[in-house]
Specification:
Rossmann fold; eight-stranded mixed sheet; 8 strands; binds S-adenosylmethionine
């Protein structure tokens, strides 16, 4: 019988999960701050956040985990097809620089698909994906960034939802199809059901642990 991935084992115990049910498996009693602390409990040392904006979530990762080197990746500029924050995205770069200056955090001002080329496969302990939320960008981010995470590392992201409003959110369509195609199981929805000190009532997230058996 194959031994269980220690990261998965830790998450199962910490969040009292039954992984023998059909994915997605819901992780309750969680918020984004609790999840960032979990990265430290797992002994993680290096990771990336894709889509940083003002740096609020990146700061939570850094301040809870001084041992972690975080690569904070964002284009911090307008580009065709991405309309969100169009009136303030350049200002956010300066804000993120100031907010993250004291931490072990390297800001990388590049498109996600350019930045990913700077990293070797299996070199990161985690990646947090929260860039553009349309189908193509989410799919590219999950496909390319998950290769950079080592076995036992965590790939996770924000806004596990579908929205056809002004700003399209296709995360809830991409994540299941990726996990199905790449034979990633189990995979999880982070309910973010505990009000977060910083983010308040939040959207759910998603997560999976890199394993030998997946085809990422
Ligand atoms: C939802 S915000 C990130 C919020 C941040 N993760 C937090 O929770 O504090 C999305 C960010 O993704 C960035 N972004 C969008 N498309 C991108 C791309 N293709 N490459 C790099 N960054 C991108 C935007 O500039 C924006 O700052």
């Amino acid at each position: 019988m194959p031994t269980m991935n220690p990261t998965l084992e830790y998450l199962i115990q910490k969040f009292n999960l039954d992984i023998n049910t059909r994915p997605p498996i819901e992780v309750g009693q969680i918020n984004r701050t609790i999840m960032t602390k979990t990265l430290g409990e797992l002994g993680f040392r290096v990771g990336a956040e894709v889509g940083v904006a003002q740096g609020h979530h990146a700061k939570v990762i850094c301040e809870n985990n001084p041992q972690i080197l975080l690569y904070a990746i964002d284009i911090w500029d307008l580009y065709p097809g991405y309309e969100e924050y169009s009136d303030r995205i350049r200002k956010y770069y300066q804000e993120a620089q100031e907010r993250l200056a004291l931490y072990n955090c390297k800001l990388v001002k590049k498109f996600s698909m350019a930045a990913v080329e700077d990293f070797a496969d299996n070199s990161l302990d985690f990646v947090y994906i929260d860039g553009a939320h349309d189908y193509k960008n989410v799919a590219m981010d999950i496909c390319e960034w998950s290769k950079k995470v080592k076995v036992g590392g965590i790939v996770f992201g924000h806004d596990y939802k579908r929205s056809r409003g002004k700003y399209r959110v296709d995360v809830k369509d991409v994540v299941p199809s990726f996990c199905y195609a790449k034979e990633v199981r189990p995979w999880f929805v982070l309910k973010n059901d505990i009000k977060d000190p910083l983010f308040g009532q939040d959207n759910p997230g998603w997560m999976f642990v890199r394993q030998e058996t997946d085809r990422t």
